[in-house]
């Protein structure tokens, strides 16, 4: 593990020590450290379990943004075959913050769209940190229309800090693009499932998340505003993001209670970044189950089902 | 300290103060600095008579000026669960709500009404920027849906006057969910083949712009209204450069193809009537201010929770106008 989060620092120390011991043993054949190293491993495993047993909302935000967490690209590569990226909005540009194209899921054609944040400095800049511009939403609309025309289910992977707040993005109608993208989701005659795999940042996420089913990974978050943004507005102090994260109720668990998320997908212990393969496998199972359930519905029923789902949201509070 | 300074003086002061002129008789235009007499300003729909600057107007005042004879009926809105997240920042959310209710005299940030404009039936909704920055929460979503449902039941257009700082943070994800919820309502209108016209007023931002405020069949804005997804300050911080003059203002959006029209508030009613009658396949309306609808019985007026009949209820040329209008209205009625 190369990257530890702030709250994982004690864990980093123990795991580091165990690693050091083993390195020493490799250098010196006579040394037997296995017993000590195993004890440290156990200590680390216990600590990991304790840390992740009750993550605070702010810690969840940190895990959701973890740089080594599997991103849209990782899911696409692992979940699908024949992935064929389709580019461009036919108006202005191709937005690299949004991936999308045709693919096969368990052999059947699907249309996949998703935000990609990038994995190193260069790719992050290229992907604009997963912050889509209007052309990204318009590309998504185009792909959804294509899917609709040929009766192909849509799978959306949501992972964005939010839509890009830039000059050009505003000039080209960021708000209109998001509004139309949400509207397109709600018009589809084909099944649509949305999965929040990391960060569901405000309106930029909604444009992809108005599906028949919305699933969230165990440590993903979905919020009207980032905890930092909320803290600086309501607390007049961006450092109060812990309190804001608490108040916003942005965890997958709270969103399930509120009826915004339909299911929570369990992550491996220590978060998806510790075992990306297991996380991707869990997502695969969830998509399979959701698509299977939706495949029985007729086009009209799919539209009705999706609309009713959103109209009903808010009818239960957290207390319920 | 004695009883004279503690009791007598304040009492005397208060007596004099009461006879004094209230200090809210004059409003200073924030744009040109002209002092405007409040009655004149309200007759001018909160538009500065000197520089045409459009100030914020409450939904009630807007509707009073918009609907024929100032008569409209409020559409009932389903109450959502209050404070669903038990949200608390430095203040509790219910306390903020009560403060806003006290300051505005309104229940929430959107008012929905039905009535006639230029003898054309409409349902209209307006956001109240003075109520928690017009922010979109569950009530606003319910109000929008109630307005759309009423428009569908009446088979008439729906007009939305937007004004908001965005989604209401205190309702967290549930406020964000009003984006798809209101969009579902717009889909219902579209399927019923009814016009949906948005009038964007200052300011319309965030999740409101990124949902119902940008999905109109016709998009009209008031002059100089700020219309954006991300606010100018956020953008300046992100791109670290100064934004051009007039950026994200109505005229700028018009230039960039994001709006159909920019229209002065005082001409908005006529313009809406013209557009809506064409979209609805009705004959042209008669120009000039019309008297209250002819078929209006007293029962209807009493039913209206808010009915304002301005002193100018019988405008110049009203008789001639109503005679002229008799035919088209009858024709419209026959068509129904």
Automatic annotation (TrEMBL), chain A:
GO terms for biological process: fatty acid biosynthetic process; malonyl-CoA biosynthetic process. It is an enzyme of class 2 (transferase). One of its GO terms (cellular component) is acetyl-CoA carboxylase complex. Signal peptide: none annotated. Pathway: Lipid metabolism; malonyl-CoA biosynthesis; malonyl-CoA from acetyl-CoA: step 1/1. Keywords: ATP-binding, Cytoplasm, Fatty acid biosynthesis, Fatty acid metabolism, Ligase, Lipid biosynthesis, Lipid metabolism, Nucleotide-binding, Transferase. SUPFAM superfamilies: ClpP/crotonase. It is found in: Cytoplasm. InterPro entries: Acetyl_CoA_COase_a_su, ClpP/crotonase-like_dom_sf, COA_CT_C. Its EC number is 2.1.3.15. This is Acetyl-coenzyme A carboxylase carboxyl transferase subunit alpha. Belongs to the AccA family. It catalyses: N(6)-carboxybiotinyl-L-lysyl-[protein] + acetyl-CoA = N(6)-biotinyl-L-lysyl-[protein] + malonyl-CoA. Acetyl-CoA carboxylase is a heterohexamer composed of biotin carboxyl carrier protein (AccB), biotin carboxylase (AccC) and two subunits each of ACCase subunit alpha (AccA) and ACCase subunit beta (AccD). It comes from Aquimixticola soesokkakensis. Residues 39-293 form the CoA carboxyltransferase C-terminal domain. One of its GO terms (molecular function) is acetyl-CoA carboxylase activity. Component of the acetyl coenzyme A carboxylase (ACC) complex. First, biotin carboxylase catalyzes the carboxylation of biotin on its carrier protein (BCCP) and then the CO(2) group is transferred by the carboxyltransferase to acetyl-CoA to form malonyl-CoA.
UniProtKB/TrEMBL annotation, chain B:
Pfam families: Carboxyl_trans, Zn_ribbon_ACC. Binds 1 zinc ion per subunit. One of its GO terms (cellular component) is acetate CoA-transferase complex. InterPro entries: AcCoA_carboxyl_beta, Acetyl_CoA_COase_Trfase_b_su, ClpP/crotonase-like_dom_sf, COA_CT_N, Znf-ACC. Keywords: ATP-binding, Cytoplasm, Fatty acid biosynthesis, Fatty acid metabolism, Ligase, Lipid biosynthesis, Lipid metabolism, Metal-binding, Nucleotide-binding, Transferase, Zinc, Zinc-finger. Pathway: Lipid metabolism; malonyl-CoA biosynthesis; malonyl-CoA from acetyl-CoA: step 1/1. The keyword Cell cycle does not apply. It is an enzyme of class 2 (transferase). Its EC number is 2.1.3.15. It catalyses: N(6)-carboxybiotinyl-L-lysyl-[protein] + acetyl-CoA = N(6)-biotinyl-L-lysyl-[protein] + malonyl-CoA. Its cofactor is Zn(2+). Component of the acetyl coenzyme A carboxylase (ACC) complex. Biotin carboxylase (BC) catalyzes the carboxylation of biotin on its carrier protein (BCCP) and then the CO(2) group is transferred by the transcarboxylase to acetyl-CoA to form malonyl-CoA. NCBIfam families: accD. Belongs to the AccD/PCCB family. This is Acetyl-coenzyme A carboxylase carboxyl transferase subunit beta. It comes from Aquimixticola soesokkakensis. The lineage of its organism: Bacteria, Pseudomonadati, Pseudomonadota, Alphaproteobacteria, Rhodobacterales. The gene is accD.
């Amino acid at each position: 593990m190369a990257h530890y989060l702030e709250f994982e620092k004690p864990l980093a120390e123990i795991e580091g020590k165990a690693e050091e011991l083993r390195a020493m043993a490799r250098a010196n054949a006579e040394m037997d450290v296995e017993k000590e190293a195993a004890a440290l491993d156990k200590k680390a495993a216990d600590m990991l379990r304790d840390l992740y047993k009750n993550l605070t909302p702010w810690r969840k935000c940190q895990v959701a943004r973890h740089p080594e967490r599997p991103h849209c690209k990782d899911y696409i590569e692992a979940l699908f075959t024949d992935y064929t990226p389709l580019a461009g909005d036919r108006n202005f540009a191709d937005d690299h913050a949004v991936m999308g194209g045709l693919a096969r899921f368990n052999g059947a054609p699907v249309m996949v769209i998703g935000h990609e944040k990038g994995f190193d400095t260069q790719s992050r800049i290229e992907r604009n940190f997963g912050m889509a511009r209007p052309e990204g939403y318009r590309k998504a609309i185009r792909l959804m229309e294509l899917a609709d025309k040929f009766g192909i289910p849509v799978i959306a992977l949501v992972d964005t800090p939010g839509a890009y707040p830039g000059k050009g993005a505003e000039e080209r109608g960021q708000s209109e693009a998001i509004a139309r993208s949400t509207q397109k989701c709600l018009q589809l005659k084909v099944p649509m499932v949305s999965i929040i795999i990391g960060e569901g940042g405000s309106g930029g996420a909604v444009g992809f998340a108005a599906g028949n089913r919305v699933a969230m990974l165990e440590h993903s978050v979905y919020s009207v505003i980032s905890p930092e943004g909320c803290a600086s507005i309501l607390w007049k102090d961006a450092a109060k993001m812990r309190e804001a994260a608490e108040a916003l109720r942005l965890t997958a668990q709270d969103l399930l209670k509120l009826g915004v998320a339909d299911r929570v997908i369990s992550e491996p212990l220590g978060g998806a970044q510790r075992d990306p393969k297991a996380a991707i496998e869990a997502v695969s199972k969830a998509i399979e189950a959701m698509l299977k359930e939706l495949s029985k519905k007729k086009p009209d029923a799919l539209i009705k089902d999706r609309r009713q789902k959103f109209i009903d949201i808010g009818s239960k509070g957290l207390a319920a | 300290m004695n009883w004279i300074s503690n009791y007598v003086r304040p009492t005397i002061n208060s007596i004099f103060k009461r006879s004094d002129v209230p200090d809210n008789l004059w409003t200073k235009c924030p744009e040109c600095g002209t002092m405007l007499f409040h009655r004149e300003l309200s007759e001018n729909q909160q538009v500065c008579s000197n520089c045409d600057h459009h100030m914020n107007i409450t939904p009630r005042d807007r509707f009073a000026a918009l609907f024929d004879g100032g008569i409209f009926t409020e559409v009932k809105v389903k109450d959502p669960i209050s404070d669903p997240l038990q949200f608390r920042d430095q203040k509790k959310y219910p306390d903020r709500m009560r403060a806003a209710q006290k300051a505005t005299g309104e229940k929430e940030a959107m008012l929905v009404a039905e009535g006639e404009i230029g003898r054309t039936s409409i349902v209209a909704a307006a956001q109240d920027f003075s109520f928690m920055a017009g922010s979109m929460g569950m009530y606003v979503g319910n109000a929008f849906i109630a307005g759309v449902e009423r428009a569908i039941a009446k088979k008439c257009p729906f007009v939305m006057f937007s004004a908001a700082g965005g989604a209401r943070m205190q309702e967290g994800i549930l406020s964000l969910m009003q984006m798809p919820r209101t969009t579902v309502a717009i889909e219902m209108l579209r399927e019923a083949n009814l016009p949906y016209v948005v009038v964007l007023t200052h300011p319309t931002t965030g999740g409101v712009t990124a949902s119902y405020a940008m999905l109109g069949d016709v998009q009209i804005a008031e002059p100089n209204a700020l219309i954006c997804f991300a606010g100018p300050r956020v953008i300046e911080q992100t791109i670290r450069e100064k934004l051009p003059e007039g950026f994200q203002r109505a005229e700028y959006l018009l230039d960039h193809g994001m709006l159909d029209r920019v229209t002065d508030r005082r001409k908005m009613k006529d313009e809406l009537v013209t557009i809506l009658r064409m979209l609805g396949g009705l004959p042209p309306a008669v120009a000039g201010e019309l008297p209250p609808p002819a078929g209006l019985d007293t029962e209807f007026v009493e039913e209206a929770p808010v009915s304002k009949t301005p002193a100018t209820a019988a405008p110049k040329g009203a008789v001639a106008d109503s005679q002229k209008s008799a035919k088209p209205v009858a024709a419209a009625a026959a068509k129904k």
